Amino acid sequence: MLPNPTLDQLQVFLTVAETGSFSAASRALNRAQSVVSYTIANLEAQLEVPLFERSGARQPKLTEAGKAMLEDARRILGDLQVMRARVKSLREGLEAEVSVAISVMVPSRALVDVLREFREMFPSVSLSLNVGELGMVMDLVLSGKATIGIGGAVLKQDDSIVTDRIGHSFMLPVAAHNHPLAGIGRPLTLGDVREEVQLVVTDASGRTKGRDFNVLSYKTWRVSDIATKHQLITAGLGWGGLPASVIHDDLTSGRLVHLDLDAYEQGEYPIYSVRQLANPPGPAATWMIDAFRTRLSACPSQADFHAQIAELQEAGTPLAAE
Question: How many distinct helices (H) and strands (E) make up the chain?
């Protein structure tokens, strides 16, 4: 018959091992020493191995089997504490999981900072994270696959959706330092960019179908995501707009060059928190929205961003490690 130790037996075993004696364990557990000894004896009978060496020693000493069992007992009782904390949180209304859809326009540093603090604040809450382009954030919220969305591209008002502006970002037209557009040395015109390949992200959600944003070239290469677009532009295969937060280090190092192109609309891009009206966020999701608001509201304006890049370039600041 397989051993079937109880949680109480494991707790008594762990207490004896950690306190160093049966008498100390009895005081810690507020039980009679005879009860502690009886519990350990029953546990050893269940496992069919001795856990303590008792002969010739004033204090009980763990056997090799006891040492091995000690780690198992700690792990099992630790898992129990996690379960108890989760149940307590659920009773208090804390979510079991928060599912978040994040736009690529959200600065990665802000994302990492928020999630690091989230892990510390809500250790019992699981996290599901999806990173989307353009209309993907809205689609994930509408479909219920995401509890909250952090992004922009609120292209159509929907009474079932609650949006709240919590910050901003912006796109900048750029090209590799050795791209023909980077070497013109004057403000660019539409004529300069018309015949150059422009890299454009395709919206997999279909929400922007038939609509192009800042597509100015006759020649376009369409890619599925910002990361691929970034790689191709850096490699000199075309020009295009990229989120400022993504290209900060590239501009500082001179690997990418900002294109002075009036025809490219470079206004601030609002970032919203998005959720379903019928599915209000719980405490953890609400905290996350506020945390993103705090960090995104502190993001620099476009003018301040350019000033910062210029200052770093003049100072010869080395490229941050990737």
Answer: 11, 12
CATH 3.40.50.300 fits 7-92, yes or no: no
Q: Give CA–CA dist 166/297, Å, rounded.
A: 7
Class of the CATH-defined domain 169-266+301-313? alpha beta
Answer yes or no: same fold for 97-167+271-298 and 169-266+301-313: yes
Question: Which residues touch 96 (CB under 8 Å, ≥6 apart)?
Answer: 86, 89, 90, 125, 126
Written as tens digits, the pLDDT of the chain (322 aa) is: 567 888 888 888 888 888 888 888 888 888 998 888 898 888 888 888 888 887 766 678 888 888 888 888 888 887 787 677 666 656 667 888 999 999 888 888 889 999 999 999 998 899 999 987 667 888 888 888 999 999 876 556 666 788 899 988 888 899 999 999 998 989 999 999 999 999 998 766 555 454 557 888 999 999 988 889 999 999 999 999 988 888 888 988 889 999 988 888 876 778 899 988 878 888 999 999 999 999 888 777 777 777 777 776 666 654 443 3
* Closest to 270 in 3D by CA, of 150, 189, 112: 150
| Predicted TM-score of the model (pTM) | 0.61
Residue 74 to residue 321: CA distance in whole angstroms = 40
- Specify the 3-state DSSP secondary structure of 299: coil
For residues 148 and 100, is the Cβ–Cβ distance under 8 A? yes
For 214-277, the DSSP string reads S---SSEEEES-HHHHHHHHHTTS-BEEEEHHHHHHHHHHTSEEE--BTTS----EEEEEEEET
Beta 148-151 vs 161-169: how paired, if at all? unpaired
